[in-house]
Amino acid sequence: MNPQSPFAIEIPALLLASAKRGDERALEAIYRxxxxxxxxxxxxxxxxxxxxxxxxxxxxxxxFRQLHQFRADAxxxxxxxxxxxxxxxxxxxxxxxxxxxxxEPDLQxxxxxxxxxxxxxxxxxxxxxxxxxxxxxxxxxxLYHVEGYTHEEIASLMQRTISFSKSQLSRGTxxxxxxxxxxxxxxxx
Length: 189
Hints:
Blueprint lengths: L12 H8 L3 H23 L2 H17 L10 H19 L23 H4 L2 H8 L3 H12 L4 H8 L3 H26 L2
């Protein structure tokens, strides 16, 4: 997983222990620390601000109810992020917002490197282009480039094949380049 992730917030062991005991102040402190990065990730995955707010609340409440299951074999932030990603993707599947792909992707699809650091991903132009992509493509791009998930992890999360993840990455990267280049060309006219 990507250590550059905005989710990479370390929680002191004492605060986490208090939260596990149900201390409301500890739970609130954790919620406040993760509220911003959680919203950004949910918004990127869902493409809808209101839905993102709902997903953050649902995910945080679910995580707090299941806090006793956190075993500390990974950083807390990675566990919490996984809860959020799972909730967002399950919601999208329930709402049938992930488009059905008509043909099996090319297994030889070239993996492209878009290299989107989180500060670049905040750019309005890029956000506008991302919002015009299909939900599943946008989710793959964001999970791969910004959150640092592997194709295997993305395929598992989205209940699809690894080749689906690779093909969405390739197609999405190409489509983003086309959209961003077109806007750049239009601005020079």
